[in-house]
Amino acid sequence: MNRFCLILFGPPGSGKGTQAKLLRQRMAWPHISTGDMLRDHVARRTDLGVQIGEMMQSGKLVPDEMVNRLVEVRIAEPDCGRGFILDGYPRTIPQAGMLEKLLAAKGFTPVVVYLEVDYNRIVARLAGRRLCPVCGALYSLASNAPEISMVCDYDGATLVIRDDDREEVIRERLEAYDRQTLPLLDYFRKSGYPFHGVEASEGSPQAIAGRIEAVLPQPGSQASKGMASE
Ligand code: ADP
Asked: What does the pLDDT look like over 138-147, one tens digit per residue?
């Protein structure tokens, strides 16, 4: 196929960020996380960051125009020329429409991987999630705890809990997902772009990354459109 970008799709807590980090190393493609980009604006208190801080803390989505603009600028950078991994974008139908136009102009096909995870597991995962504020490593108290409690294995920094990983906010994020993002499943299925469901409840992060790699097109293959779902 032509050049493609990988869209990691799934509910909050389905492991998009963890998988994107693993695949970024394996594929040597940039990992574009709109959540990370937006959090960075909030931390630096840019004009955008000041406008969106409260929305993010309460688990609401940031308006499409703001996120679209960030993505448009980011994917125009030279490191995205061979391919890239999108994590947390698109999250609404207008975002998907915008992305489709940008990709068509670049000659890229989107390949969608849907991480299928049981909802009960998601709440448990998010509530036990810890983040290194220095290197971005993600830990899960249930399945991937740091060696020393609340200390990053890689750089010794004190781990933090993301503001929006508090239980009442988790519920709001799942509601936002159901309302605004889930309709994209149908949109992707109808689009005719390659679409793969991947079981992401069971197995180590490495095993799940292996399942994702197994469904990705081989460089130069002819399978441009058409759908598949495992
Ligand atoms: P998760 O997928 O676990 O919710 P993210 O880091 O992807 O975490 O997103 C965190 C927050 O950032 C979201 O709750 C939302 O406020 C904002 N956000 C991230 N990506 C988008 C997007 N594509 N559109 C709108 N808001 C977004």
From this structure: 998 888 899 9
